[in-house]
Amino acid sequence: MRVALFVTCVNDALYPRTGIAVVRLLERLGVDVDFPEAQSCCGQPQYNTGYRHETEPLLRRTAKAFAGYEYVVTPSGSCAAMIREHYPRIGRKAAGEGRGTELAEAAESLAPRVYELTEFLVDVLGVTDVGAYFPHTVTYHPSCHGLRSLGLGDRPRRLLAAVKGLDLVELPGAEECCGFGGTFAVKNPDVSAAMGTDKIDNAAASGAEVLCGADNSCLAHLDGLLRRADAPLRAVHLAEILAATEEEPLS
Amino acid sequence: MTGTYLGMPAFPAFPEAAGEAVRDEVLRANLRHATHTIRDKRARAVAELEDWDRLRAAGKAIKDHTLRHLDCYLLQLEESVTAAGGTVHWAADADEANRIVTDLVRATGEREVVKVKSMATQEIGLNEALEAAGIAAYETDLAELIVQLGHDRPSHILVPAIHRNRGEIRDIFRSEMGSWGRPAPEGLGDDPRELAEAARLHLREKFLRAEVAVSGANFMVAETGTMVVFESEGNGRMCLTLPETLISVVGIEKVVPTFRDLEVFLQTLPRSSTAERMNPYTTMWTGTAAGDGPSAFHLVLLDNGRTDTLADETGRQALRCIRCSACLNVCPVYERAGGHAYGSVYPGPIGAILSPQLRGTGSEIDATLPYASTLCGACYEVCPVAIDIPEVLVHLRERVAQGGPVTREGIRVTLRPAHGHTAERAAMRAARLLLDRPGALRAGERLLARARRLAPRRLPGPGRAWTDTRALPAIPAESFRDWWTRERGTSQ
Ligand code: SF4
What we know:
heterodimer; A: alpha/beta; four-stranded parallel β-sheet; 8 strands; B: alpha/beta; six-stranded parallel β-sheet; four-stranded mixed β-sheet; 23 helices; 12 strands; about 50% helix; binds iron/sulfur cluster
C-alpha cells in the first residue's frame, strides 16, 4: 500500500522528528510512504483567525498536491479536521459567492481521503499493536479537534496501551481544552496560560513522566509551559512513541 | 444599579477584562467550583435519556422551522394573544421596548413593579429605564436579587450571582436588604437555608403588595397565545399570578408553532440548565381570565437586532438558543474569564456569538468577542439545540478581520474590516504567500535553522504574549522537507 504523508507546516519546520517518526512507523508496518513536496500549510491558522480568503490558495494547493492518493495520512488532528470539516465549507462559501464550483469540488474530493494517523492505523491498517517499545509512564491529552471534530475516541489510547513497557495513566480533566487554540494563545494570553497551567498541573498529578498528544500545536504550548516551569515532565508526540523500538529508542 | 449592556460600547476589550478575572483567585475558585458541579450533574441527567440525540435534533428542527417562517408565526401569535384578551406591542429596539413598558406601568398609576427573572429585560436595561421614570423594579429571582442588592452585574445566564460565594452573599444581604425593604434577620449566617429564608421573607412583602409584574418568557405558543416560564424557585409564579397587571417582554425568536412542540423543550431545557429531570415550576398563561390571575396582560415583542441576525445564513442559528446556559458551564474560557468579561448580559460561548450579532461588531468588546474562544467545541457538544458555536465564531471573526455583508436595521450593507487588524492582515497575507511557494518555504526554513542559535528567549511585539509564560520550541537543525530530500531524494 502506498500513502501520501501530509506532514503539516508546524511539523515540517519545528517538529521534523514527528514526521520522521511517521515515516519509520508506517514503513515498519509495510506501507510505502510518499512525501509530495508541493504540499504546504492547510490554512488552518488563517481560517480560524478570520482570513478565509487567504486559505483558498492553500486549499487549492493541498488538494492538488494529494490528487491521486487514496490515503493521505497526517500526524495532526486539527489539520485533518481542517481538511475534512472546513475545506468543504470554504468550497461551498466560494460557490455561494459566485466564484464557481472548482474549490468545492477540490475540497469534496480530498476530504474523505485524509486520515489522522491513529485513524489510519486502527481503521485502515487494522492494527493496535504496532510493535513499539517505550518503557515510561505516559498520560494522554486528547486535543479538542481530534476528540470532537474527528471523533478519534479511544483509538490513541488503545495504540498506547499496546506499547511494550508503557504504563498508561489517566489524565485528570483530560477532555478539557489545553488553551492553545491557534492565535487564541497570543490574542488571549492570560486565559490561554491559565488553561495550559491547569493542564500541566493535571499531567503532573497523573504521575506520568511523559505527556503525550497527537497534535504538536497543543504540545508546543504545553511543552513551552513545562519548560518555563522547569517541570520534570516532557511533551512527546504520539507518533514518536509508536515509532520507538528496543533497537531504535526515542532519543 | 446594574448598567445597561446592549448599545453601550464602554466595556473593555475581552482579553484585558478576562486577564483581570484570571488574576482574581476568589472569582476563579467560585466559578470553577460552580461550573464543574453543574456540568457533572448535567452529564448524568442527560445520560438518563436514551433519545437525547433525537430530542436535540428535534429541538433544532422546531426552532429552524419557526425561524424560517417567523413572520407567519408572530402574526398568528398576535392573533391568539389578542383573542385571549391580551394586548400585543411591537418593539423594534431597546428604547422602544422601554418606552412601551414605562408607559404601561405609568397608566396603572403604580410606582413599583416586581420582576420575574428575564434576560430580555436585562438586555434592554429596563430596570434602569424604569428607575429614570421614577418606578422601582424589584428582582424576585434569588440570584437576581443578590446581584441587584450587591449593585453588581449578572455573570451567568441562569445563575447571575455565580461569581459570589455564600459569605459574600451573607454580607450583601446584611448590608443592603434594609434599604430595599425588609432587612435581613439579626445574626444572619451563611448557611444556604438561612440565606434562602432571609430572601423569602424579604420578597414576600413585595409579592403581597405588587400590583404590576414584569416578566419574560421561555416560550410563546403561536397556536394558542400561551406564554411559558420555567423556573426553580416559585417566586416567578407569585409574580405571574398575584398582581393585577402583567407585562411580558419577549424576544421574537421565542415563539414555537404549537403546544405540542413544548414536549421537546420540557425535556431538554431543565436537564441542560439545572440538571433536573423536570423544572420545579412551569407556569403557563394564555391572555386573561376573569377572577383568575392578572386582569390585564401585555406582550411586548422585542426585535432589537434579531431580524438582522436572522438575515445572516450562518449566524442565524444563534437564535435557536433556549438560554439553558449549558455552554457556559462547559466552557474553559468562561470558567477562567468570568461572565463580566463578556460585557453583555449574554456571557460565555453563546454571548460571544449573540452580542456581536445583536449589537454589531463596531465596539472594541464586540470585535474581540468572536476571538474569546479556543474553538474547542465543548459548547457545540452540549448545546441542546445543536448550535454550532465554533462555526459562528469563525464566521464572525471573518466579519471582523475581512469585513463582509451584514444586515443593519433591515438594510444590506458591506462592512469594512475592523480597525486594528491591519498588521495582522498583512502578516496573514505574507504567511500565505510564503506557504503557497514551497521553494520559498524551504529557503525560509533553512534560514531559520541557520539562525537557531540566535533564537531569543523572549520575543518582541505580539510574540511577547507567547514568551511571557511559555518557552519557544527549539528550532531544529533540519526541516522535515530537507531530511526527506537528503534521505530519499525528491519523490515527485
Ligand atoms: S447556545 Fe445552546 S447551550 Fe448555550 S445557552 Fe443557548 S441553548 Fe444552551
